[in-house]
Batch of 2 targets.
Target 1
Amino acid sequence: MKYYGTYRLVKSEDLNHHGTLFAGRMSEWFVESCFITVAKEYKHPENLVCRKVHEINFNEPIRKGNIINIESKIVYTGKTSLTVYGKVTKGDSDKVIVDGFLTFVCVDEHGVKMPHNLKMDEPSTEEDIRLLNIAKSFRK
Amino acid sequence: MKYYGTYRLVKSEDLNHHGTLFAGRMSEWFVESCFITVAKEYKHPENLVCRKVHEINFNEPIRKGNIINIESKIVYTGKTSLTVYGKVTKGDSDKVIVDGFLTFVCVDEHGVKMPHNLKMDEPSTEEDIRLLNIAKSFRK
Amino acid sequence: MKYYGTYRLVKSEDLNHHGTLFAGRMSEWFVESCFITVAKEYKHPENLVCRKVHEINFNEPIRKGNIINIESKIVYTGKTSLTVYGKVTKGDSDKVIVDGFLTFVCVDEHGVKMPHNLKMDEPSTEEDIRLLNIAKSFRK
Amino acid sequence: MKYYGTYRLVKSEDLNHHGTLFAGRMSEWFVESCFITVAKEYKHPENLVCRKVHEINFNEPIRKGNIINIESKIVYTGKTSLTVYGKVTKGDSDKVIVDGFLTFVCVDEHGVKMPHNLKMDEPSTEEDIRLLNIAKSFRK
Amino acid sequence: MKYYGTYRLVKSEDLNHHGTLFAGRMSEWFVESCFITVAKEYKHPENLVCRKVHEINFNEPIRKGNIINIESKIVYTGKTSLTVYGKVTKGDSDKVIVDGFLTFVCVDEHGVKMPHNLKMDEPSTEEDIRLLNIAKSFRK
Amino acid sequence: MKYYGTYRLVKSEDLNHHGTLFAGRMSEWFVESCFITVAKEYKHPENLVCRKVHEINFNEPIRKGNIINIESKIVYTGKTSLTVYGKVTKGDSDKVIVDGFLTFVCVDEHGVKMPHNLKMDEPSTEEDIRLLNIAKSFRK
């Protein structure tokens, strides 16, 4: 699996009263980015529903005019479910300022769960192993 | 602590392509509702920032025209932090269709953490004890 | 009949160029809150349409970061119509900073008016009698 | 005084769950149109605040894809206040499908009322006399 | 053909991080205004699709609280296409601060191009001749 | 220079009355994507303003639920200006369904043009030469 990225420009309409990116708006973009990732991999967005946000960490404020990059990738596959890790960086920095995990399930037109048949390669990097283990711990 | 409630009407602009309430939009309303709750209790919204979404569970689809009630209350207080439990019901039903936990921290004008000085009563109901324990497990 | 309440947080996207809550945005939230109230009482939102705003008074500016509570209740029932009184308070204050009256009619799937069959108790408090009389004066 | 007009296209994001233009959205556009009119006449929008919606009548449903024309003009001037009449037509029809009256007050930078010094000609048409009388009746 | 005009009030939610009207938002309003114009002339919006923006010039910044007037008219008709010229003025000034050209095509319910049968008068003013020539140069 | 990409999910709120992506909304996303690209390369978004949309071609309808990828890159640098080429693809297809060119200028805090000092490599691929030539033709 690979990362799919989306750039977002923080505009006036996205701010809270502190003048920073409203956590609710960041959550909306985060969920949308993770959905895009599973849809790009599974190819049938109409069969994917978001079941759970496992966590989202807001590590730093994000200000008006900042350009953020929201990248996400599938890190764990169950038979009918897909768990996604997402992270956000700002400007030229690699520092992860927001990250989290979501799980989607694959359903048929009646809303009944069905297998997605996606296969993941074994994780090869330390980072991927770390992410897989965190995803598994959520899934117990 | 008590529940603060917000009603929301699901409109066309809130839908995903399935024709159900987009999980990203529900997350935005959920975060906003929890923020309102801590602001109502702490009285100084300018000192509150959202630090973490611990989880949000989406148990059922929500459709256009549904009226949902998003209720949240503080269930755990640390020295500088406040953890909120939120739940969503639909129409006349008591069934919890979305729920989750968020943590906010109290900060001064420089963004440095500071004590909020809010005190919670000891939980008295089974439900409140259950919620407190879940909140504590997130906080470890 | 009872009050149904909705909290709203005033964010940057809701402001006019004065930096206060844009009256058009307040009107939109006000109408939506009143609609939610009639839908909660009548239970079939698909049969309710807004026929008239009788008045909305804007008594005070509302600023970014304010948390307002929009409460509304049915104060008068005709055979096919329902008149709602709504009021807005801010923060911890009881002062009514915006209020007004709206009328909805109950229609069938062809848009033809039909009886809603909702019954109101006789108003018991001074406030309820006052509101009923104002509603009646609009309805002549 | 003359009418200032604004065309609006009703899009998916403006609909209620009936598939018609949401009354709250229409109210928001209506208030904005009336504000534009007083700002065009008074030339200093920063001194104008909306004080009261006297009424808005919703006579007909408006559907997705409809192009509506919202026209408004000042029909009554007090010393510090301006009352506006607004009407909405659809497509090529002259039928007034929404109309209403709003009052704005002129305030200084401290929010204190001040004279606007706008003068209206005496109404010459039957329509203008009718509108002036309705505006006066609201202003008692 | 004549100009159809739409007033817009620039609000906080329309700003970029410079505090001026975000060019993307201006583009959205510009396209919508041109669409309204072709729909008012052709009368069947369901048959019109936007094929091309030929150019949009942003000559001056537009600030919060400004009231702009977006006027557009058809300046060239092909057999199945319509080219529109749009211009934006601000406050009381006649200075054109944004302008541009768009082309729409008339299609049937299968998306196949079809004649619109609209006829334009020969341009009579210098301005109209100038606009027609520019439109023709785009259409080569 | 390289392409910067942004994925977008087309939701109900983005549709026109045909049920396809509203050209105005696509224009807004297109301008925002091009802005992000110049900001990522120049690193000081506060000094960049959009001066002109040279053209945007809408080649195919885009539907609700489609995931589009908007990619853009700088293809021509003047002393104070930057011209960007943007293209949109859908799902797994490489077919360019929307494309166009925009020019931004670099300005100081008073809005006066200033050199950006960005250097482009000589175009090496056929595609890049083609894009450079189109950009130059716009710039005459």
Target 2
Amino acid sequence: MAVTAMPRARFSEAEWRTRVDLAACYRLIDLFGWSDLINTRTTARIPGPAEHFLINRFGMLYDEVTASSLIKIDSEGNNVEPSDEPVNRGGFTLPAVVHRARPDVACCIHTHTVAGCAVSMQKDGLLPLNQHALQVIGDIAYHDYEGTGRSDGERSRFLADFGDKHIMVLRNHGLFVIGRTIAEAFIATTGWSGPARCSWPFSNPVRRSIR
Amino acid sequence: MAVTAMPRARFSEAEWRTRVDLAACYRLIDLFGWSDLINTRTTARIPGPAEHFLINRFGMLYDEVTASSLIKIDSEGNNVEPSDEPVNRGGFTLPAVVHRARPDVACCIHTHTVAGCAVSMQKDGLLPLNQHALQVIGDIAYHDYEGTGRSDGERSRFLADFGDKHIMVLRNHGLFVIGRTIAEAFIATTGWSGPARCSWPFSNPVRRSIR
Amino acid sequence: MAVTAMPRARFSEAEWRTRVDLAACYRLIDLFGWSDLINTRTTARIPGPAEHFLINRFGMLYDEVTASSLIKIDSEGNNVEPSDEPVNRGGFTLPAVVHRARPDVACCIHTHTVAGCAVSMQKDGLLPLNQHALQVIGDIAYHDYEGTGRSDGERSRFLADFGDKHIMVLRNHGLFVIGRTIAEAFIATTGWSGPARCSWPFSNPVRRSIR
Amino acid sequence: MAVTAMPRARFSEAEWRTRVDLAACYRLIDLFGWSDLINTRTTARIPGPAEHFLINRFGMLYDEVTASSLIKIDSEGNNVEPSDEPVNRGGFTLPAVVHRARPDVACCIHTHTVAGCAVSMQKDGLLPLNQHALQVIGDIAYHDYEGTGRSDGERSRFLADFGDKHIMVLRNHGLFVIGRTIAEAFIATTGWSGPARCSWPFSNPVRRSIR
């Protein structure tokens, strides 16, 4: 798409607003130092009757994402419009589980920060050691690591583990946060980040079997 | 207020100097990496017979604060002048306790740095392990965490715990520093920051009851 | 060489592409914070029948390296073209061992990052504590520290320890990564960096004899 | 001194070169993140028969120091030329001990880095855990902390503890490095910095009596 194109005209007002907010979210994640090259993703639901979602173009760094470059996909990760843009369908697996099962979830943010990964490696997870932690600790779920392949069985366990929480610690992996708006998911990620950074050196990790 | 307004004309010389110093203090806190988005605050007393104070406009980031944007409030957190600017009255609770009880205190700086929070989570607090620590350790008070609601009883205990010290470790929370001038409070915060950064990985935290 | 020279004309297309990629690799290593002044190096094989390699000019910082400033050497570290540019022949010792023995290796990246050195100081090396670690842990070799002098015996042990892995932890020293392309070696270094940063504070180092 | 003055004309060639190198050293210390506001100092001997030294103007930050702003003092810390520039005589105490006793020492660098302070707080000091450490460990001396007042007795013990080493760990305080040139002292500080940053989280500090 040429720089001189007028992308906004191609989208409904609702889709355009979602694109702008989601692109801003990618940029903020980069600004806060939470990105991991191309290895995580943030997805958002486009309001409306169709089950359409936005995701970053595979291979694009977080500080490169723009409103227009986001790709519209259905709940299976297929391109909605004819496109030769690459989609990270494997990366959409986990967000898709949540987006399909919970229409109230507008946004999924998945991160691999050093502090977040380190707390995810600790047997006790985030401890209630300070006020920052108290603000999020009641909203944290945990999901055990089952390997990189996602089976149907794991999808069910993942949703069950989530329950009604917004912050999911993917044990020995990272963080997965959901929100009813993009802003809510971002704020929850921020709320997790503070206590994680204070706490991560304090506990001992547990060596877990990977089978 | 328009950018072209001449704000200084609206203020007494004493108030204007306090505004400039306090805004500089907000900017320095940001520059030193001690800010926590909109979650802490710094307040200053305006010299003069009236019990008036300055606080940041709620929602403004530390690197956005200007001398003119600071809001004048009384010791209850009410706007002194007609204004629709939002005031973080909950955030003024703790500074108000100090400002009302101790006219000698010109400035309260409250921070949530990673090192400061981490030391606040340690049973022994700051240990006398190096020369930096010796320079402040005699001036440090500790106040146990009692939850997010501030009762009258806690206000009394908070003042009693402070005694004649300038640096208060809010256990399992963060730091609260006072000074007879804005500069003094800033320097004391700096003096705490060095030993906290050297020391925080060394002690074990204690899990505290939050009731 | 004057700035106005047209360096590309002096090189074959294959050499020029290797120069551009290797210089980009030096710049990326600097950008990611993995450089250590002039104390490590990255080398690349120039495709073709001759056993020629590129290395940085000794004394040049990583953010100063350019495609044209790289020096062409043979497998003994001798300048291939008449030149008074200094070559770090001692620094080429270890890469030379790999480049001579394994024609499939196009690039060697040697780093001394804080996290990488710290993990190299730990008895158990990198632990399988998170998904990042799982992505590289099967591709990691370990070589015990034998001192700064490199004997013929050590060269054999170094190659034997490497086996068919791409990531070598030089115990009590740092990291040595190889790839069939410059990009592959860089990506493997990136893949190591994440779990190393999450893991390094968790294990206890072991004091090793240096004889 | 006005910006338009030609400071160089006021100085001998030897003094001017020392000024330029020492100012560069201050700037590099700031660039490497080793400065501590106005709380440390670096001093250099001006070559020549007179026992004259250069020190930063008290109150100037490291990134503000210029060749012309450095102050010329004698071995007692007195201004050599009529000047109303403030000299940190207390801060010159320790460098003066070395400069007077050892004419071979051209430069003293005193720092309070987080990693350096943290290692200084550890009973065993820097451990021989990696190659970086091996490069400096034979050149490290230790001096126990005796408080902030420097007695004649301590000066003797300080020199005796230094022996013929270049890197002095001031226990529970920081680092003091000397060199026969400004560059040598800077390189030695760099050589210490790497292993200190790798090692500081690994050992347990010891609580020392401060009397």
